[in-house]
Design goal:
The chain has helices at 71-81, 98-102, 112-121, 140-153; strands at 2-5, 24-28, 40-43, 56-62, 82-93, 124-128, 156-163. The chain has 164 residues and is of the alpha/beta class. It has a seven-stranded mixed β-sheet. Helix 1 links the parallel strand 4 (56-62) and strand 5 (82-93). The mean pLDDT is 87.
Length: 164
Amino acid sequence: MIIEVGPGSGGYKFNPYIKPSLGVVYVDINPPNSDIGDALWIVADAHHLPFRDGVADRVYAIHVIEHLEEPMLFLRECYRVLKKGGMVMIVTPNFMSVNALADPDHKHVFNFFKLRKMMREAGFVTRHRLGWNIGSLTPKPLRLFIKLLLILFSNDLIFVGVKS
């Protein structure tokens, strides 16, 4: 099973990251405000996912965690519902992005170190993803420096966590 949390409801257009198909369940705090066809939708709070332990292969939360009152509780819920080896993908505006503070509904602002620490505290083995590669012919110290700059100044943080 694949769970996508917060694909759009209430005042937001239904805009899932994962295309609706068999085995995909969408969870949001309000029902969708548009026709979603045969997609399976559950109205629930992300802090208390309505699933048994260890049932999901993947959980996606794209621009969700910054809206939550207790993001750590949400990360622990993701860990709980995932199978061993299951994966969570969290995408959130970076603290340096105009998007981080533009939405008055954002309750939290994240940077690379804060989000990585929270995911590790929830039990995940983490990987940060950049949308581009840095030239392999570039000396390693320079590649690491460029990567750090890109992480600091990117619009979005993209983290993948794996349940060990």
